[in-house]
Write the structure tokens for this entry.
Amino acid sequence: MDSTRQVDAILAWYDRHARDLPWRRPDADPWGVLVSEFMLQQTPVARVLAPWRDWLQRWPTPAALAADDVGEAVRAWGRLGYPRRAQRLHAAASVIVERHAGRVPSDPEQLRALPGVGDYTAAAVAAFAYGARTVVLDVNVRRVLARLATGSDAPQGAPSSAERRLAQAWLPEGPDAPRWSVAAMELGAQLCRASAPRCAECPVAGDCRWLAAGRPAGPPRRRQLYAGTDRAARGRVLAVLREQRRDRSASVAELIDGWPDPAQARAALASLVADGLVLQTPTGYRL
């Protein structure tokens, strides 16, 4: 399939229908883009908007975050989930200050060397903050390419070599490269969704092999449960600690109070201490 026409159609659709997200605006700096990519990992856009603004107002540069306590980063992460992202973002800010004079690097290899930054985040920051021609493969882009170009539903697991070759082949030259990546991402988020796709509104529905094949189902997606899990117990402990004043520690009794399984809550607390997200003091526990 010659992708030029489809790429142009998706870019034109994006120009008309893209959501106005602050980290996509021209005045968003590389630090703001990096923060958004950390926050958007496994978290919907709607939940990220307010925390992203608050974060950048408090820590407008990597140096500002690195100079503060990591516990404050975890506290400010609030209910975004997966709080180790806050810990790793703080560590990344420290490395940026120590090795890159406080400036988010533009080179994908240097980005990948930052704590908490993998292939996707490195490519996204290089593309969206610096205009680099890099393959950006998030779940939305993977779904769009799989359906449009191969006729299959979204692949699962880590991107394969074949996926990367396909994505590279679809990547346009010049300044349209980063625009294409974000446009495909937006198409996947708004129309080419995992469930209830809005194919009638899609600008490339006439070329979609998946639609032409009758929208065959892919492998069943595993539902991610939360309530009652160890992750939920960890979240409850952190929620209690976020409510504590910075100058006091919480006791074990305070942290496990109200959780239906005290042993699970104690294990959650121990895992948070082991991960460095919670600090044990002579008087109790704090962020």
User: Anything to note?
Assistant: Strands lie at 279-281, 284-286. The chain has a mean pLDDT of 91.
